[in-house]
Amino acid sequence: MSAIPASSTEGTPASIPDTPVRTGPLLVAFGVGSAVAIGLGVYGRLHGATGQALNLAGFSSGIAAKAWLTTAAFVFALVQIFTATILYGRIKISGAWVAPVHRWSGRIAVALLVPVAVHCLYALGFQGYSGRVLLHSILGCFFFGAFVAKMLILTRDDSPGWALPAVGGAVFSAFVALWMTAALWFFATNGVTT
Amino acid sequence: MTHRSPLVTLAGLVVAFAIFFGINLANSAPRQATGPGYSSASPSASSQSNQTESPSTTQQVTPTASPSETATAEPEGDQFPEKVVYAGRTDDDSTAIAVAVLGDRAAAYVCDGRNVESWMRGSAGDGELNLRAKNGDTVEAKLEGSTIDGTIELGDEKLDFTIDEAKRPAGLYRVRGSGYTIGWIVLPDGSQVGIEARDDGTSTAAPKLDPDQPDVEVNGESVTPKPVEGDEDI
Question: In this structure, are residues A137 and A42 in contact, taking their beta carbons and an 8 Å threshold?
């Protein structure tokens, strides 16, 4: 059973002949993802966090800018989850737009996250002084590792059927938890403000 | 069949990371000790990550070593007392510094009460102190009787100092709360210099420490600053 639902791959017929399932590439994808996650964590821990501010015009502070950037990413992530559900047949909507919207909403969401993640890593580092912060640090590493694994899995058609939904779900769940441990916390303590 | 567009996405991600890292690197300009032109929100950077790695000391405050312990000079030179704190101002009076020594370990805090602060740790032995902050700032000093004489290096800036032993309530104090770390230097003349460094990168002057009150109120929570003894992992 191939990993990618038939309706999503552009230019292929609705039913793809079954390609054999291989676990080797899957292990490689998870291995590379893990290496990325661990690498980010180690870097975040060892590199002396510089504490410098992220200055974005229109926002009162770096942390407010990050909270809003990630909230915008959240909107795109929701679009991605919605289109994923369509791609897997759980919602009965059809159209050639679903797959490209799924991909592009994901790309935009991740693009919005990059300046936030880089600032978090570079200026704040991997921290453990509170549960919230420890969870955020761990999940931040995990999120990017899972994302890399997801991209690698997507390059091939021979992953087990559960792999893509599992990794996609992990990416989304990690993102939600990241948003809650940072942006939501910020809005809860400072109000929904810029 | 292989699909290339996920790899394109990955490549885009790596490039975006590299760009923003470059921006951050370019923005961590060498620190100035003072100056309105200074652009970064928190100049003394490494302190935040340093402090959060260590558990707070829970020991009660004990009296610092008395001066008579340092009077016995070894033939090679002065030796530090087992436990001592030095505090004072740099020669140009711009910045305060406090150094806590415990055995052969030392911790130091350099602070001007406005926007310069640096936590350092290192070693004390044979009358010499060598301390380093995570961002590379250093303090080197030599013991002479009951004073230490040395130089702070913050980026390109060098500040000389000669400071005395500090007796309680003078000394070095620190507290960590949710989202911030505060350091105070209480000088022998009773004045205080301190900075509250928040984890979002901003910093302000520290709230006033009252030697008669063990607790201090920060952002609505009551916290107890602890004296820094010298062997903290900061």
Answer: no
Q: What integer pLDDT is reported at residue B51 of this predicted model?
A: 40
What single string gives the DSSP state of each residue in A143-188? HHHHHHHHHHHHT-S-S-TTHHHHHHHHHHHHHHHHHIIIIIHHHH
Ramachandran bin of A127, using left for φ above 0, alpha for ψ from -120 to 50, beta for the remaining angles? beta
Q: Is residue A66 part of a domain?
A: yes
**C-alpha span between A23 and A20 (Å, rounded):** 10
Question: Do the Cβ atoms of B201 and A110 come within 8 Å?
Answer: no
Nearest by CB to residue B48, choosing from A51, A61, A106, is A51
A182 touches A75 (CB < 8 A): no
Cα distance between residue A193 and residue A185, in whole Å: 12
Inspect the interface and report whether the beta carbons of B9 and A114 lie closer than 8 Å: no
Q: Taken in order A148, A151, A153, A156, is the CA torsion positive or negative?
A: negative
Q: What is the number of domains present in chain A? A: 1
Which chain A residues are within 8 Å of B2, Cβ to Cβ? 155-157
Cis check for the bond before B169: say yes or no (omega within 30 of 0): yes
Total-model pTM: 0.52
Tell me the C-alpha distance between A150 and A167, whole Å: 6
Structural domain boundaries, residue A29: 24-190
- pLDDT tens for B59-95 read 444 444 444 444 444 444 577 887 889 999 988 888 9
Assess if residue A1 is contained within a domain.
Answer: no
- The C-alpha atoms of residue A175 and residue A165 are separated, in whole angstroms, by 15
Most distant pair of Cα atoms in chain A: their distance? 55
The DSSP result for B73-89, as a single string, is -BTTB----SEEEEEEE
Do B10 and A148 form a contact (C-beta atoms < 8 A)?
yes
Please, are residues B233 and B54 in contact by the beta-carbon 8 Å criterion? yes
- List the single residue in B with minimal CA-CA distance to A9: B3
Q: Determine the distance in angstroms separating the CA of B113 from the nearest CA of chain A, rounded to an integer.
A: 17
pLDDT one-digit tens code per residue, B137-147: 989 998 888 88
pLDDT for the residue A80: 95
CB atoms within 10 A of CB B144: 14
Residue with token string 């010298």: B230
- A114, A147, A164: best mutation site toward chain B, by most B Cβ within 10 Å? A114
Two structure tokens written together for B3: 């699909």
